[in-house]
Amino acid sequence: MNWDNLDHRRLILAEPAAIAEFIKINQMTLKRPIIVFDELHKYRNWKIFLKGFFDAYRDNVRIIVTGISKLDIYRTGGDNLMGRYFSYQIHLFFVAECIRTKINEKEISFPQKIDTALFDPLFKFGGFPEPLTKHHSRFSNRWKKLRKEQLFREDIRDLSRIQEIGQLKILAQLLKYQAWQLINYNHLANKINVSVDTIKRWINTLNAFYYCCLIQP
Fold first, then answer.
1. Residue numbers of the chain with a pLDDT score lower than 70
2. What residues pair up with 37 in beta bridges, in sequence order?
3. What pLDDT does 89 receive?
4. Is 51 exposed, middle or buried (0-12, 13-18, 19+ CB in 10 A)?
5. How confident is the model at residue 69, as a pLDDT?
6. Sequence-ordered list of residues with C-beta below 8 angstroms from that of 94, at least 6 positions apart, any chain
7. Using an 8 Å Cβ cutoff, are 208 and 70 in contact?
């Protein structure tokens, strides 16, 4: 069930029993089938909904909740789902996954050479599945532009309440050309005309949404 689907949204807003009736939970032949809720974090009361649904139907179905944003960012107040779930973060495709698909028994494995045919698309299109598998420059550029716009205009703005989206996008652009360099907070603050504390807070926000990755000394 997808929150962005209006029919599904009406059922989620109604009550858990409405969803149970919709999926015919009492008529399923499979033992504890899986129900997936996608983009549910966009619903303000998603935790209350999940708690109620889980408590009512925990013996009937297994539940997976997915979303493009980290669900733990959206935690507000006490975690009323404590003890009811396990959290997993799915990262992008990277070199190790292109070389092997099985999980290593050892935590650290010896480096292996990656074939050029595997590395070049990964380097050119990035690790997101759709651009990587299509191998199409025009599609990749449009996809990246759309993702960036959605990231700043929807996810970050709605969650963090940051109003200066224009200045935040300038910061993101500056960080893009400072990869692997030391962060000079004062320099960035002067460039964007905000305080050093604001720059630190904004970078932490970008890091939380996987726009960048901070490497601590």
1. 68-80, 159
2. 65
3. 80
4. middle
5. 62
6. 122, 127
7. yes
pLDDT of residue 174: 93
Q: Beta strand pairing status for 34-38 and 62-66?
A: parallel
Q: Is 103 exposed, middle or buried (0-12, 13-18, 19+ CB in 10 A)?
A: exposed
Measure the CA angle with vertex 208, ends 104 and 103; round to 5°.
5
Residue 196: which residues within 8 A CB-CB, separation 6 or more? 185, 186, 189
- Asked if 201 and 207 count as a contact pair (C-beta separation under 8 A), the reply is no
Q: Of 65, 63, 62, 58, give the one whose Cα is nearest residue 89.
A: 65
Instruction: Decide: 28 and 62 in contact? Cβ < 8 Å.
Output: no
pTM value?
0.68
Angle at CA 63, nearest 5°, toward 88 and 37? Answer: 85
pLDDT at 171: 93
Look at the block and give the residue holding tokens 């919709």. Answer: 22
